[in-house]
C-alpha cells in the first residue's frame, strides 16, 4: 500500500533531532490478564512525563516523526518501538506500558485482528489506533474493540498531544467530527459476534488464526511458531470449532470482515454504478 505523508505530524518533525527511545527485542510467552478501569490505572497529568508508550508503526519516517512529537511533549517518557504485531507482543510480554499507539495497516496481520491480539495481550494499557483511514465505519468498528482513542495521521501536532494527554487521564478520544455521531456507536451485530468468538481463543490460537488468514499452511505455521505439525493441527481444529466454521476457507471469509482498510480501499477505487451516470 502506498502511503501519503501526513502534514499534521510531519510539520514539526526534525529528522536530525536526538530522541531517547527504548527499543527491545523479546520473545513472547503466553500472557493473560483481566481488564481494569483505565481511568483508575492511567497516570495523572502531573505524572504524564514518566509514562511508558509503545509505538507500533512499520513506516519508518512516520514512526520517527510520531516518536519525535511524543519525546518533545513528554520529555521523560519511555518510548518503545515495534514494526509488527508480533514485535509489539514481544515487547508487551516483557514490559508493561501505559499506552499503545497502533497503526491499523500493519503487514503480517488481517485488519483489526492484529489490534484484537494486542488488546488481549495488554488489557490494562490504553490502546489507541493511529491511522490514515478516517472512515466512520472503520472508526466505529475499531471503537468496538474497547480502544481508548482513534487518531487520524493527519492530526496536527498540538491536537495529537492533547489527545494523548486526555487518554492518559482516562478519557476516550475520537476526532471531533465523529463525536456524538453514529461513528462512536457499536459496530454491527456480525462484527460483535466475531469479536465474541475471537475472545474465546487463546493468544496462541489467535496467532495461528492470523497465519491462516495470511494463507500459511500447517507446515509453515509449525516452522514459524517452532512447534510440531500435530500441535498446529490441534490449534487449527480448536480455532475452527470456537469460530463455528468448518474449514480454513470459511474462517478466512469470516475474518475478512475485520480487514476494514482493504475493503475501504476497494470501495474508493470501485467504478460507479452503471445506472447512476444516466440519472439527472
Notes on the structure:
The protein has 280 residues and is α/β, with parallel strands linked by helices. It has two domains: 7-184, Response regulator (Rossmann fold); 189-266, Arc Repressor Mutant, subunit A (Orthogonal Bundle). The chain has 13 helices and five strands. The chain has helices at residues 7-10, 38-41, 60-73, 85-94, 112-121, 136-143, 157-168, 189-198, 203-213, 218-225, 229-243, 248-255, 260-269; strands at 52-56, 78-82, 99-103, 126-131, 149-152. A five-stranded parallel sheet has the order 2-1-3-4-5, with helices on both faces. Strand 1, helix 3 (60-73) and strand 2 (78-82) form a beta-alpha-beta unit. The longest helix has 15 residues, at 229-243. It is globular and about 50 Å long. The protein starts with 6 loop residues before the first helix and ends in an 11-residue tail after the last helix. Mean pLDDT is 78; it is low at 1-7, 10-42 and 265-280.
How are the SSEs ordered, and which strands pair?
Blueprint lengths: L6 H4 L27 H4 L10 E5 L3 H14 L4 E5 L2 H10 L4 E5 L8 H10 L4 E6 L4 H8 L5 E4 L4 H12 L20 H10 L4 H11 L4 H8 L3 H15 L4 H8 L4 H10 L11
Parallel strand pairs: 1-2, 1-3, 3-4, 4-5
Key structural traits:
single chain; 280 residues; alpha/beta; Rossmann fold; Arc Repressor Mutant, subunit A; globular; disordered N terminus; disordered C terminus
The count of domains is 2
What fraction of the residues are assigned to beta strands by DSSP? Answer: 5-15%
Order of helices and strands: HHEHEHEHEHEHHHHHHH
Rounded to the nearest angstrom, the distance between the terminal CA atoms is 36 Å
- CATH class category of the largest domain: Alpha Beta
Helix coverage percent: 40-55%
What is the global morphology? globular
Strand order of the largest sheet: 2-1-3-4-5
Mean pLDDT: 78
What's the total number of strands? 5
Which regions are unreliable across 5 or more consecutive residues at pLDDT < 50? 1-7, 10-42, 265-280
CATH architecture of the largest domain: 3-Layer(aba) Sandwich
Helix and strand content put the structural class at: alpha/beta
What does the main sheet amount to?
5 strands, parallel
Number of helices: 13
